């Protein structure tokens, strides 16, 4: 049994007990598991799949922008809330990620183009 599977089973066992006790601990456990799984998924990607992986990352950032826009726009609100400020920050940061991702993807695709004769 590998160390990764032991760690995953230990975290899963701890999260099952933690979810009943405190929602924050459960959310934190899921976040840590997502980091662990994401790291291993990206690390083991073959070089041929880097461009599609970048495209999916851009799509996820686009979904974040849509969700943040829905949080920022509150028609009945009379004052600026913490949610709308965090939504505006999320829109800004995800937009930078999207445009930067498109530039990197464009450069990666340009490497595979054949030179014209």
From TrEMBL:
Q: What is its EC number?
A: 7.1.1.1
A GO BP term, please? Answer: NADPH regeneration
The reaction(s) this protein catalyses: NAD(+) + NADPH + H(+)(in) = NADH + NADP(+) + H(+)(out)
Q: Does the keyword Ligase apply?
A: no
Record keywords: Transmembrane included?
yes
Keywords in UniProt for this one? Cell inner membrane, Cell membrane, Membrane, NAD, NADP, Oxidoreductase, Translocase, Transmembrane, Transmembrane helix
Tell me which InterPro entries the record gives. NADP_transhyd_a_C
Quick one: where is this thing mainly located? membrane
Give the bilayer topology.
Answer: Multi-pass membrane protein
Please provide, in alphabetical order, the Gene Ontology terms of the cellular component aspect for this entry. Answer: plasma membrane
Q: GO molecular function: any one?
A: proton-translocating NAD(P)+ transhydrogenase activity
**Ranges in a coiled coil:** none
Where in or outside the cell it occurs: the entry states: Cell inner membrane
Which residue spans traverse the membrane?
Answer: 30-46, 53-73, 85-105
Q: Where is the NAD(P) transhydrogenase alpha subunit C-terminal domain?
A: 28-114
Q: What is the purpose of this protein?
A: The transhydrogenation between NADH and NADP is coupled to respiration and ATP hydrolysis and functions as a proton pump across the membrane.
What is the protein name for this chain? proton-translocating NAD(P)(+) transhydrogenase
What is the protein's species of origin?
A: Iodobacter fluviatilis
């Amino acid at each position: 049994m590998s160390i990764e599977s032991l760690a995953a089973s230990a975290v899963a066992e701890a999260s099952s007990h933690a979810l009943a006790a405190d929602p924050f601990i459960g959310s934190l456990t899921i976040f840590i598991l997502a980091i662990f799984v994401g790291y291993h998924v990206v690390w083991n990607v073959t070089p041929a799949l880097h461009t599609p992986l970048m495209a999916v990352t851009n799509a996820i950032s686009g979904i974040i922008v849509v969700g943040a826009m829905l949080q920022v726009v509150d028609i009945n609100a009379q004052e600026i809330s913490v949610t709308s400020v965090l939504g505006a920050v999320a829109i800004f940061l995800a937009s930078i990620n999207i445009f930067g991702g498109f530039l990197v993807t464009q450069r990666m695709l340009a490497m595979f183009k054949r030179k014209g004769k």
